[in-house]
Amino acid sequence: MAIIIVTGSVGTGKTTYARSFAKKKNYTYIDVNKIIDAHKKRVDAKYNRGDKCYDVNTDKLNKILITRIKEAKKNKESLVIDSHLSHYLPKRYVDKCIVMRCFDLKKLRRRLQKRNYSKRKIDENLEAEIMESCLQDAIAFGHKVKIVDTEKTKR
Ligand SMILES: Nc1ncnc2c1ncn2[C@@H]1O[C@H](COP(=O)(O)OP(=O)(O)OP(=O)(O)O)[C@@H](O)[C@H]1O
Ligand SMILES: [Mg+2]
Predict the structure, then answer these.
(1) Which of 6, 7, 15, 37 to mutate to test the pocket of ligand 1 (most atoms within 8 A of CB)?
(2) Structural domains of the chain, count
(3) For the residues 93-105, what does the mean pLDDT come to?
(4) C-alpha torsion 6→7→12→13, nearest 10
């Protein structure tokens, strides 16, 4: 069994990749957004009007995810956890951290524009990808990191 997390900047293709990876390997796909939705109070979810998303307390979110991971381990179930917050999990619970990258910034911009995000939100997310925020955080957290280039994955 394995616990795989899929992280990366907004729109880099985490969900697309995580779903197809889980299907191929017969692992359970975990949508962290759904968990946040179901536990808004427990994770101190605060709606961020500017970015039209929820800001959450990652320590509290980790507690829920760790409970799910422990359950999976008991049942010998493998998980693919999809979230740009997944790399905040302590490394001892994670076998592999996949960081999705979209090196073609024009393509990433187009993907974000399609979602009708504000210019500020698009610029901030492009900057996060340029700065490799998720990758650097994942490395700092000590995860076994594998970079997946969205261009080189089939949908
Ligand atoms: N390998 C790929 N090739 C081309 N387009 C892709 C690929 N993967 C994802 N996309 C497109 O990029 C967009 C974003 O993909 P996706 O929703 O998987 O990203 P995400 O990282 O999960 O986004 P979010 O951070 O909002 O959860 C979608 O329109 C999707 O169709
Ligand atoms: Mg997604």
Answers:
(1) 15
(2) 1
(3) 98
(4) 20
